[in-house]
Design goal:
alpha+beta, 6-stranded antiparallel β-sheet, 5 helices, 10 strands, 34% helix, 22% strand
Length: 203
C-alpha cells in the first residue's frame, strides 16, 4: 500500500518510515506496526528524514525507472533532482519535504538544443495542471502521457484515446481550430474565384 507507514512500538521514537526505508530493517519484526500516514501523524509521529528525500524515492522506485526506460524515457539523476527526457520534452523532478511530494517542472520552450549531460542548467517552470506527484512512478506516468500526446499532435495524428480529461479538452479545441481554418480557407477561395461575393461579407 503506497500510503502505508511503519512505526516502532516499545521505544521512545516517534518517527514513522516509508516502505523500503533502511531504518525499518533495524526495527524488530515484533515491534513493527503498519498504519496509514494520516494515522501515524494523528498519533504524533513525524516522518523519518531518510525517507523524506528524493534519494529514498530514487532508490526504492528503480522498477518504475526501468519500465519507462523501455518506453524510451531517459534519466539523469543529479544532486537530488531527477531529470527526465522524452521524445519531445525535458522535465525536472524535485522532492519537497514539507509536502512529502515530488514537484514537477517542465523545460521552458527555447530554440537552444538540449544538452542532457547537463540538464540542470536549463530553465524550467512548474507544470500547472500537475504540480505534485506522490512518487516517481506517478510523475513518470504523467510525463509519458503528456509527451506522447504532444508528439502525436506534432506528427499531425488524430488522437482517439486520452489519458485524462485535459487532453480530451485540448484535442477538442485543436479540432475546432482546424475546422475554423478550413472554413476560412474555403471562403477565401470562393471570394478569389468570385470577387462579387466580397460584397456579401460583413467584415
Amino acid at each position: 500500500m503506497r500510503n502505508e507507514r511503519i512505526v516502532s512500538l516499545g521505544t521512545n521514537s516517534f518517527i514513522y518510515h516509508k516502505q523500503g526505508c533502511r531504518y525499518v530493517l533495524r526495527i524488530k519484526r515484533k515491534n513493527r506496526m503498519h498504519l496509514s500516514k494520516r494515522a501515524a501523524e494523528d498519533m504524533g509521529y513525524r516522518l523519518c528524514k531518510c525517507c523524506n528525500s528524493m534519494n529514498h524515492h530514487y532508490a526504492t522506485e528503480r522498477k518504475s525507472l526501468a519500465l519507462y526506460r523501455e518506453k524510451k524515457l531517459e534519466f539523469n539523476y543529479i544532486e537530488g533532482s531527477l531529470f527526465v527526457k522524452s521524445e519531445v520534452g525535458c522535465w525536472k523532478l524535485v522532492y519537497v519535504r514539507r509536502e512529502d511530494k515530488i514537484a514537477i517542472y517542465h523545460r521552458s520552450r527555447t530554440d537552444k538544443l538540449l544538452d542532457f549531460t547537463q540538464p540542470q542548467y536549463e530553465i524550467y517552470h512548474r507544470q500547472k495542471d500537475k504540480m505534485y506527484a506522490s512518487g516517481i512512478a506517478s510523475a513518470l506516468h504523467y510525463i509519458y502521457e503528456h509527451d506522447k500526446y504532444r508528439a502525436a499532435v506534432e506528427r499531425g495524428e488524430k488522437i482517439m484515446k486520452f489519458s485524462n480529461e485535459k487532453y480530451r479538452r485540448r484535442e477538442t479545441k485543436v479540432q475546432w481550430r482546424r475546422q475554423c481554418r478550413r472554413i476560412d480557407s474555403l471562403f477565401k477561395t470562393l471570394e478569389e474565384e468570385n470577387p462579387e461575393y466580397k460584397k456579401l461579407s460583413f467584415c
